[in-house]
Backbone:
């Protein structure tokens, strides 16, 4: 049976370290600041942003939850981004996806100052990640949290076969870059992939971020693999489930994340970590 990666406990540990760093910065008269921009009233987005705001406040950040109605126009959101770009008390700006159709999300992402792009989605930051450049730049928080899991659970990545299911800019693509930069042999798959199970069965490290409940079954996983389930799917019953058939895949995997209690808490912990990083980079170099 697989060992279960305890994302909640790991997030607690990381948050404790973050709190100590925030306290240290505050001794220098610096309070890290984060703003989360939420458009509309999508219930899941409301919960995610509220959780981020609460955690940031609890850890001692200046935290702003900036809400706009669903019918807000592009110019209003762009003006808010510009305002926070210029606000010296703000280190990280995050725009919660999904955005309503009338908004040009790409233009909004591209308008965020790269050194305040706490979600790591600006093309400059993504480009640096893909080029494996040295130096300081933010990376998407979900993949960052997964890399922390590998580190804390002593998962060796060098030379391993890593398969990522799902190629979004938020999860799959930065995950592939991070794993490849860590010398794993990386395969990035999507809905267009032919015979996905034949590929996932090769994986020593399998990361699933497709948004498809129970997509990955026991027979799709190699014995002894490390399986990370990013998916969050709400079933008709109201129950949350991942993209992996946890119960059966646990029989063959070596390490596995549950949903809930795996990647989710680590995403928020990584967002907090990255906000402090960005405050330190901006103020202390
Ligand atoms: P997305 O919809 O932007 O991308 C999904 C990707 O999966 C696409 O590249 C698509 O081609 C691929 N895909 C879909 N079905 C597939 C299939 N049957 N076979 C192979 N590939 C398939 O999604 P996203 O934003 O990357 O999110 C993915 C999932 O992860 C969602 O359930 C989302 O809620 C969840 N998520 C969780 C966290 C977290 O903190 N735990 C963070 C972000 C996203």
Residues:
């Amino acid at each position: 049976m697989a060992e279960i990666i305890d994302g909640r406990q790991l997030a607690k540990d990381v948050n404790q370290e973050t709190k100590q760093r925030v306290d240290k910065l505050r001794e220098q008269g610096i309070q890290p600041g984060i703003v989360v921009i939420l458009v509309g009233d999508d219930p899941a987005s409301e919960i995610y942003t509220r959780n981020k705001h609460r955690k940031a406040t609890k850890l001692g950040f200046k935290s702003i939850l900036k809400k706009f109605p669903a019918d807000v126009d592009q110019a209003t959101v762009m003006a808010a981004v510009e305002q926070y770009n210029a606000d010296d008390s703000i280190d990280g700006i995050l725009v919660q996806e999904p955005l309503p159709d009338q908004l040009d999300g790409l233009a909004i992402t591209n308008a965020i100052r790269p050194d305040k792009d706490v979600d790591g989605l600006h093309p400059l930051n993504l480009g640096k990640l893909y080029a494996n450049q040295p130096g300081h730049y933010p990376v998407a928080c979900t993949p960052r949290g997964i890399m922390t899991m590998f580190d804390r659970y002593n998962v060796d990545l060098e030379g391993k076969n890593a398969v990522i299911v799902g190629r979004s800019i938020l999860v799959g693509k930065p995950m592939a870059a991070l794993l490849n930069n860590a010398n794993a042999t990386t395969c990035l798959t999507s809905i267009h992939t032919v015979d996905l199970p034949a590929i996932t069965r090769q994986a020593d490290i399998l990361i699933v971020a497709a948004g498809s409940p129970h997509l990955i079954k026991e027979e799709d996983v190699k014995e002894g693999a490390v399986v990370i389930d990013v998916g969050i799917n709400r079933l008709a019953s109201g129950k949350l489930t991942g993209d992996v058939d946890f119960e059966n895949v646990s029989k063959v995997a070596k390490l596995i994340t549950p949903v809930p209690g795996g990647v989710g808490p680590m995403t928020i912990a990584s967002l907090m970590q990255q906000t402090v990083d960005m405050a330190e980079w901006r103020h202390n170099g």
